[in-house]
Amino acid sequence: MASAHPSQSDLSPEDPRAPADATGAESPALLPPTPAFSPLYQQIKSLILRSLQAGEWKPGDMIPSEFDLAARFRVSQGTVRKAIDELATDNLLVRRQGKGTFVATHAEQHIQYRFLRVLPDASAPEAQVPAERRIIECRRLRGPAEVARQLDLKGGDSLVQVRRVLSFSGTPAILEDIWLPGAPFKGLSLETLSSDKGPMYALFEAQFGVRMVRATEKIKAVAADADAAALLGVEVGHPLLSVERLAYTYNDVPMELRRGLYRTETRHYHNELN
Amino acid sequence: MASAHPSQSDLSPEDPRAPADATGAESPALLPPTPAFSPLYQQIKSLILRSLQAGEWKPGDMIPSEFDLAARFRVSQGTVRKAIDELATDNLLVRRQGKGTFVATHAEQHIQYRFLRVLPDASAPEAQVPAERRIIECRRLRGPAEVARQLDLKGGDSLVQVRRVLSFSGTPAILEDIWLPGAPFKGLSLETLSSDKGPMYALFEAQFGVRMVRATEKIKAVAADADAAALLGVEVGHPLLSVERLAYTYNDVPMELRRGLYRTETRHYHNELN
DNA sequence: AAGTGGTCTAGACCACAAC
DNA sequence: TTGTGGTCTAGACCACTTG
Fold this sequence. Notes:
2 copies of one chain form a homodimer. By secondary structure, chain A is of the alpha+beta class.
């Protein structure tokens, strides 16, 4: 690269055109005061992201080395590095010194369910005994309006609903209702789910090519209704933690709505603030 | 700097000796497999951190420019930059392009209580009406053993306890009990607290030089007892969100234990997962 | 115009893993 | 030994803010 600083839109390596706005979650859609400047490494970042979405590299795969990518995009290694840095802090990529950079995966997330924030009260940080999972039902339906809205679907679109109970050492602890868009999850059945061991999100990756990337949660305290009380083994009215999660794939596309009811007599939802 | 890579412990700029282990939250205290290697920028990071703790730069102050710090520590600007980058993502420093780098502060945190994760259900991300605060009591006592333990105090040490209620548009919403170590907060009184407007953590900074840097929270669903029910205007047994927060200053020193009971009929605790 | 953070480059060398 | 990520440097130029 001849000039030290390719002053915007100098990018034309192997990909047709660089998007003016890279991150996608930035511009407030109202009169950008700056004419949409985005640094090179952001453009590289979104090119890499595009390859991830397109499935060029699959979860668990090693992506090309920093130097290879630098050559491919015709930028310096440091610029690629900064792009990868951000993708790594977003948990889309995982760096392993001496080995390479890999596409993150929910499988082999060595020790934990990526999005499950529950810990036993006597919190030895380990000792996280694996949960026993029991699928109660899995059915297809035309979804409730509110669910459809949150998943960016039309009112009449098909949905999959899954209900399951998680138990710790025999005692029921969490009741979950999960809604998924029908189209991407065609073929998901009670048998598939029941026979699977390992995180559900790992199954989504392997079977349906859907990778959950981030999520938001709304947490409330609610009273157990008759249904929940029966399934969780508590009295009606018992306080339960309601955790409503919206999980997203790449590009901020919502792909799962999940409502969990947690018994919190001997465990808690753990959160780190900074 | 003559050699391109000062191979460990070449650091002797204006500070006597660089600590072998920089971050403090890393080594498991058990047979370090590597002989405690820590990169230069980590050492710079902890030198800057030390200056922050020592009060060399106070909350809101501008710290020296990257080049000044580079000269002072006798490293390159890029190395200082990486150190500052990490401190900025930890929310200890705030970068402002064109102006400088500033010590973060809970005052003028333009729009939000830094650690309060509560949002109204109909979540227009703004419209966060300011809460009305009412201090119910502020007293000194010899602390309960469990509280003392979490604050790393002896059983007999003095504590300050504060109880207050937060309301939104006239309706009580949050009941908080706050425990603080007596020594650093000598002089804290009901009057001080009541006459203050603005975040409590801003007052802690300004009056007591204690800056809260991070926190952990344990969240549960509980039933309102008589006390809480009366103060929050709900019936006994009403489900409440219990949020137990341990807040830390620099160096992972716990400085506040806070237990909040939240009414969540029309609002929720919001969390982002990635 | 001067000062500060932000981006980008090119090249050197270190640490780690695998062959 | 080789390849990969990780650190460090020195220098250039861009973008933003202030006088």
